Amino acid sequence: HDHVELCGGCRATASCLAERLEGHAAVRVVAPETNIVMLDLVRHTAQQAMDLLAARGVLVSNFGPGRLRVVMHLDVTAADVERAGNIIADTLAA
Predict the structure, then answer these.
(1) Contacts of 24 (CB under 8 A, 6+ apart)
(2) For labelling, which of 2, 30, 53, 69 has a CA lying 20 to 30 Å from the CA of 62?
(3) In a 10 Å sphere around its CB, with 0-12 CB exposed, 13-18 middle and 19+ buried, how is residue 55 labelled?
């Protein structure tokens, strides 16, 4: 597994999720400027990844054939970010 812990001082932010997934073999992280993280997929189409992640409770948007858009809402906690990051990393590693 490509497994990396969240940064120690992480809050529930897009940059925290981006840091969690940086260097993962299955995605290329586009550096976030807002509450949005863009993930360019290496091993899956956007639709495949969306379906796999939705089955595990992580909802993302299709932003092109090989790109996902992840939006961090105001009510997202640091624990939510960690859980989502782990699910994305584990699911897309397959």
Answers:
(1) 2, 4, 89, 92, 93
(2) 2
(3) exposed
| Paired tokens of 24 | 């993962």
Beta bridge pairs of residue 62 = 68
Which helix (DSSP H) or strand (DSSP E) does residue 55 occupy? helix 46-55
- Contact (CB, 8 A) for 92 and 41: yes
pTM above 0.90, yes or no: no
Tokens in use for 26? Answer: 């299955």
pLDDT digit string (tens) for 27-44? 999 887 778 899 999 999
